[in-house]
């Protein structure tokens, strides 16, 4: 769970920092990022009510991975599509960011839930410190790191042990 917290928070802030380095209009990319953040929050809430935590994290990380791959592979040649690619990547990251908050309390026993929540939040905040530095690395490495982290998050999401009292 700590890894999912760490990548969700680090990549959430990374996308905000990295917008100025993406090709295309910075303002359009920023508007797209804001719209995706709202949609990602709604989708994260929807996913946790429809599927269990494993599948919710898997789907959210796959959406982010798809957006990251589009930015990495197609983004420089199709600049007009960059806001759409930003929407896809930020939507997945925002959904994962909401899910870690919604799911953590349910995954741990009541006695340890607050401690687990705090420990995960501290580790994630510590990891998020590097997000502006990742954004400033020479291309294509920032989006490569993004894609590797979200791909690993999709795989790691299946290692979540769901309690019997889980939402789904």
Question: How would you describe this structure in keywords?
Answer:
single chain, 7 helices, 168 residues
Written account of the structure:
It contains 7 helices and no strands. The protein has helices at residues 2-18, 26-50, 53-73, 82-107, 110-128, 131-135, 141-156. The two termini are 17 Å apart. Helix 1 (2-18) runs antiparallel to helix 4, helix 2 (26-50) packs parallel to helix 4 (82-107) and helix 4 (82-107) runs antiparallel to helix 5 (110-128). It is mainly α and 168 residues long. The longest helix has 26 residues, at 82-107. The chain has one domain: MFS general substrate transporter like domains (Growth Hormone, Chain: A, Up-down Bundle).
What does the secondary structure layout of this molecule look like, with pairings?
Blueprint (H helix, E strand, L loop, with lengths): L1 H17 L7 H25 L2 H21 L8 H26 L2 H19 L2 H5 L5 H16 L12
């Amino acid at each position: 769970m700590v890894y999912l917290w760490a990548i969700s928070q680090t990549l959430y802030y990374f996308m905000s920092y990295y917008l100025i380095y993406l090709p295309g209009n910075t303002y359009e990319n920023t508007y797209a990022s804001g719209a995706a953040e709202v949609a990602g929050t709604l989708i994260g809430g929807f996913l946790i009510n429809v599927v269990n935590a494993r599948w919710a994290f898997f789907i959210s990380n796959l959406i982010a991975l798809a957006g990251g791959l589009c930015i990495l592979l197609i983004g420089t040649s199709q600049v007009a599509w960059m806001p759409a690619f930003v929407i896809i990547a930020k939507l997945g990251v925002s959904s994962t960011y909401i899910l870690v908050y919604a799911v953590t309390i349910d995954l741990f026993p009541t006695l340890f839930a607050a401690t687990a929540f705090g420990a995960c939040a501290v580790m994630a905040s510590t990891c998020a410190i590097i997000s502006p530095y990742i954004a400033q690395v020479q291309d294509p490495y920032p989006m490569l790191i993004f894609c590797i982290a979200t791909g690993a998050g999709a795989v790691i999401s299946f290692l979540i042990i769901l309690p019997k009292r889980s939402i789904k």
